[in-house]
Design a protein that fits this description.
single chain, TIM Barrel, two-stranded antiparallel ribbon, 15% strand
Length: 291
């Protein structure tokens, strides 16, 4: 059975965010080479304004990334990554001081600089492969997104294989890493199965089909499928034309208990959540066992 969302919360600067209703993490890519929106929003000012638009549309969290993690992406230095992130982070915090800002990085140095500047959480696509990351997260006592990846962004799509089954192996990996992160002092952990990060099209859909199994981790589940290849390759289209498919996957993820949707398109995700809430309310009203 899925873990009750009403029992799950995230803590930001002493304030609790309940997860009794799904939350939205809006994506702001400060990169020229992201698979969908790299360079789309222009300079630092444009990216700040884009973040403010996402907040206006209903984003609960803004996730800023300074380095592309698309398949085959060329790594950049922590220094360059921070140079991209710093002005956007500072601009968002200045213009929207109540905004909750996440930093999408696997560099502990960047995480430290961002958290010292005022960021509220870390989204780590390598799930703690950098041994210096967890002590930084523990030091600032912030929520931490632990994503599963097979290999690195440069190698992850080179014939990914899961001999014991993708659902079992991803679950086992996340379970062991969550336990290790807790031992390192990390408090709030959010699990992300890592759609598209070292998975074939079929493996991605196996993970989505069996997403309920990951509630046994007893942590919130973040789903990041927005405009990814599991949408546009399956539909033989492009990331630019993948919004409708993304929304369909969001609906199925919500029905399997996703707590956070990480999205490019906040308005459409908000609508999916609103409609799903009505569906769930209707189910409870019509359930004869509830009387």
């Amino acid at each position: 059975m899925p873990t009750s969302s009403s029992l799950l919360t995230l803590r930001f600067d002493g304030t609790l965010m309940p997860l009794d209703s799904p939350r939205i993490m809006g994506i702001v890519n400060c990169t020229p080479d992201s698979f969908y929106d790299g360079g789309r929003h222009g300079n630092d000012s444009g990216q700040i304004q884009h973040a403010l638009r996402l907040l206006h549309e209903g984003a609960d969290i803004i996730d800023i990334g300074g380095a592309s993690t698309r398949p085959g992406a060329t790594p950049i230095s922590p220094k360059e990554e921070w140079c991209r992130l710093k002005p956007v982070l500072e601009g968002i915090l200045a213009q929207a001081p109540k905004a909750i800002v996440s930093i999408d990085t696997f560099h502990a140095q960047v995480a430290e600089q961002a958290l010292a500047t005022g960021a509220h959480m870390i989204n780590d696509v390598t799930g703690g492969s950098n041994p210096e990351m967890w002590p930084v997260v523990a030091k600032y006592n912030v929520p931490y997104v632990m994503m599963h990846i097979l290999g690195t962004p440069a190698t992850m799509q080179n014939s990914p294989s899961y001999p014991d089954g993708v659902v079992f192996e991803v679950y086992r990996s996340l379970l062991h890493k969550i336990e290790a992160a807790r031992e390192a002092g990390v408090g709030d952990v959010i699990a992300d199965v890592g759609f598209g990060f070292g998975k074939t099209l079929e493996q991605n859909f196996s993970l989505l089909h069996d997403l309920r199994a990951f509630h046994e981790l007893k942590v919130p589940l973040l789903v990041g499928v927005s405009r990814k290849s599991m949408v546009y390759k399956a539909l033989k289209t492009t990331p630019e034309d993948a919004l409708n498919g993304t929304t369909a996957l969001h609906a199925w993820a919500l029905d399997r208990g996703a707590h956070i949707l990480r999205v490019h398109d906040v308005k459409q995700a908000s609508e999916a959540i609103a409609l799903h809430r009505l569906l769930q309310n209707n189910k409870r009203i019509g359930d004869p066992t509830s009387h």
